[in-house]
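Think of the structure tokens as a kind of shorthand, similar to the way a musician reads notation: each symbol stands for something richer, in this case the local conformation of the backbone. In the example below we present two proteins back to back. Begin with the first one, reading the sequence and then the tokens, and try to describe in your own words what changes along the chain.
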Amino acid sequence: MATTPTRRVRTVVTATACTGVLLAAAACGGAGGSDSDTIVIGYSGPLSGGAAAYGKNIQDGLRLAIDDLNQRGVTVDGQEYRVELKSLDDQYAPDVAATNAQRLAEQDDAAVVFIPHAGGIQAAQELNSSRTEFLLGAYSSDPKIVDQGNELTMMIPPSFQSYVAPFVDKLMEGDAQKLGLLGTSSEYGQEWTALVSEEWRKKGGQVLGDNSVDYSTVSDFAGPVSRTLADQPDVIFIGGPSQPTALIVEEARKQGYDGSFLVMDQAKFEEMEEFTDPKNLNDAIGVKPARDYDDPGTQDLVDLYAEKVTKERPLTSEVALNYQAAAIVVSAMRQAGTIEDSRAIREALPEAIGEVDDHFHVTGFPTEITDAGHLRNMDLEAAYRTPQGEYEYLPIDQPDE
């Protein structure tokens, strides 16, 4: 006899413990369940350990959106609701993320759970269509996320596959031929390394030795940088968390490197500018800074982030894209007329995107969701920081899915 997935009486979007800035309207709830007039949104992410800053960025984006949604009022099928964020710390461990997601769905009635790392997302995809269904808010640019064929996945950021060819093309416009490899040694970083190397060779360039290092454990980059520069590269591929990426850039300039940098999407220009002289970042290509979008809600979120979270760090796309995604999910609940039926919420996403208030349009707000479940804006842009320190933006074509 077929097993019928558990139904919920109410929904919560969940996140790990109430750490960092607490937004009054979106404070973490207690253990277990939710009130009948509460929509719970779940979040499992790294809120302690080496990736805690990244996990906190995701959490902040969700919190800020929930606070704004509550201020505006949320009504689904004629009933008013208060949206609540519940969070669990997974320390970037895939198995813990999957366990957290199931707990949020079963114990806290979360119809939607956000996870911001590929390993955790793929682990959760193995169980979100089984005993208890929940929509997975997947924050990872790994294209494998939508290749799984999981019908209850909503992939949030652009696929990193979108960036590789245009990044290579831009930096090969001159006479650059030799590519040095100095990315992070994580699985994600090595996928980037492989794709960039393949594309560089395809365009007729020479790929030099691979000097990848673990950006999360190495603190002295002088040796890896020196080995990379010994091959006299024209371009160096770098990327991992923003702070160590900036330190590698600084070390390379210190050792006399005056070539280009190809920066993977994990590192953000606006954050790297906080850790090194911005001039060191000249002649580099990477992700467009969140502050430089001109969407209707961009400046409001920049100001809100400074007011509610911190003035010490810039708004990044991790915050902004999850801010948008939370608003899209609640809009889908409105369109579906349910806060508990995950499949109905997923099916309502295409229509819901067009109904989200302009206030939540911040960084290339999605114009579609693909059949595979990927939120996309077809006007995606990347940023090239010129040798003079000015940002130029170039269009990015996105692959078919």
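Once you have a description of the first chain, move to the second and do the same.
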Amino acid sequence: MLIGPMRTGLLAAALLFWSVAANADEAVIERWYTALLNTDRAALSELLTDEARISLTDLGVVQTKQEFIASMDEWESAVAGGQIRHRIAKSEGGVVTVIACYDFPANDMLMQETFALTDNRITATSQAAMAETCDAY
């Protein structure tokens, strides 16, 4: 008769572990978009592993961590006065899919972004446009 309580305990432990992992993933994603909006090179550098690859699918570009951080000068002027809204669409096994609205003064863009996470750091991310407006956000 101990199987019922034991099974319940194991289920509770599994749910707690999943909840902690999901919260950790959510915290990494929140830090990413805050750092991106603020062009915080130090925070972005801390979030990305040294081997991280950033894939801008629509442009056919894959950047190293160093190339991505170096591109922040250009990004800083593009993001000025804008905002980034995001929501996690899926988080499973260290892979997080995000729907993000880049809302800039001159235009907005709806993106799907996927992050591979290990030890609360980003090992890879890819970005692809979903729409030229954020109406579907």
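Compare your description with these statements about the second chain. Strands lie at 48-56, 61-64, 83-92, 95-103, 108-118, 121-131.
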